Amino acid sequence: MRSDHRPLAVFDVDGTLADSGHRQHFLEGRRRDWDGFFSAAVDDPPLLEGVRLVLSSAVECEVRYLTGRPERCRRDTVAWLVEQGLPEGRLHMRRNDDRRPARHTKLEVLERLGREREVRMLVDDDELVCDAAELAGFAVFRARWAQTSPALRDAQGREGRT
């Protein structure tokens, strides 16, 4: 895939484009089942608000996907994006062994992208990621159309898994 010179529109996946609500139960309790959580992602229904936004953004911007999912989920994630008819775009994922909170890993990627190109906007549901991106000077669109369990919010904020 060739990169172009349009500004970038960067989209999160879980909670922004993909409805992970049906699999959040894997994160409840003392022992979180991360393998189960990520394996079930192939069955995520799309979030129509996010889909509409990514499709409209693709008119003026090059779309990139930035997820807290680990690299081992790449094949399933790419297949899901294609199945939903979403615009082609480079997918940025965390290393399998990276357990830092998403607000750190995603901000690193955004800053790298911002040195190369204009980042027109980040669309994400994680409030901590959004806060960090805004503090760093990025335009943020907060995806508030999905239900997030307390267990998932805790995992996003403290465990560095999604």
Description:
The chain is of the alpha/beta class and 162 residues long. The chain has one domain: Rossmann fold (3-Layer(aba) Sandwich). The chain is built from six helices and five strands, in the order E-H-H-E-H-E-H-E-H-E-H. A five-stranded parallel sheet has the order 3-2-1-4-5, covered by helices on one side. Helix 5 (127-135) links the parallel strand 4 and strand 5. Helix 4 crosses helix 5. The longest helix is centred in the C-terminal third of the chain and has 15 residues, at 102-116. The radius of gyration is 15 Å and the shape is globular. The two termini are 26 Å apart. The model has no long low-confidence stretch (mean pLDDT 90).
SSE blueprint:
Layout: E1 8-11, H1 34-39, H2 48-57, E2 62-70, H3 74-83, E3 90-94, H4 102-116, E4 119-124, H5 127-135, E5 140-142, H6 150-159
Parallel strand pairs: 1-2, 1-4, 2-3, 4-5
